[in-house]
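Good day; I would like, with your permission, to put a structural problem before you. A protein sequence and the structure tokens that stand for its backbone fold form the material at issue. The record follows directly beneath this note:
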Amino acid sequence: MSAPLMMICATFLFASMGVCVKLASAFYDAGEIVMYRGLIGAVLIGTFTLLRGQSLRTTVPALHFWRSLSGVFALSLWFYAIGKLPLATAMTLNYMSSVWMALFLIGGAIMMGSARVDSRLVAAVLLGFVGVAMVLRPTLDQQQLWHGMAGLLSGMLAALAYLQVTALGRAGEPEYRIVFYFSLGGAIAGAISTLALSWSENSPPHGHGLKGAALLLAVGLLATAAQVLMTRAYAQGKTLAIACLQYLGIVFSFLYGALLFQDPITPWALGGMVLIIIAGVAATLLRASSTPPDSQHTVNES
């Protein structure tokens, strides 16, 4: 399978995972979904790693901790937003991570006293936020501001997680080890969140029915399969072309939302999604010209 095709399949699987998360939100809290998604991923990746004779031992546990912390918070907010917002809206806000990374790059250049700040990168960031304002307009009308902000914050935290992935890559950590510890962190953080919520509400965690358990299993399997395909696509293909293809996930989510959930389709939302996709692709291309080659490879861990 070619690298572009693997990336297209990965984005479709991630969008399908989003559908399962949205359906599972009727049975479980976001923390519970994160817990089971992480547990299934850690078991699968850990098993395949050991069967292949590879090692999960790491010499940089602190880097894995901070990467998992930012990634799990991003994932939890994203799953929460998926449960509360139209699927395409939640997916689009999470895909703002490329725009956030461009904003971080601009902020870093200013803090370092650089006189050269790429105006095109600034324009891409501004275009992205115009798109956000357009996408969130129907959300504001429904008095769901917090849900929209949660989705937007998930994208910002995902950008921070990507920076940690870059640091781990420079430290020599392979992708499978990064994904394993992220999944393990998700399982632990989700369990803590679930126990804390059940204690505060004085009620046990949700039980499992056949449909709920099947949805949780699907979330874990789809996310893990998508992660493997995406990792291989980045390893075999041209990084920039592969990175741009990830925005097909928004298109797949939009179709899912319209067909399965009768999500409202408005010109404002459509226009905003298009602007965010353009801004994300532009930010990816421009950021690549401003960073070293070994820091251009970032892998979506959601």
Notes: The radius of gyration is 19 Å. The longest helix spans residues 210-236.
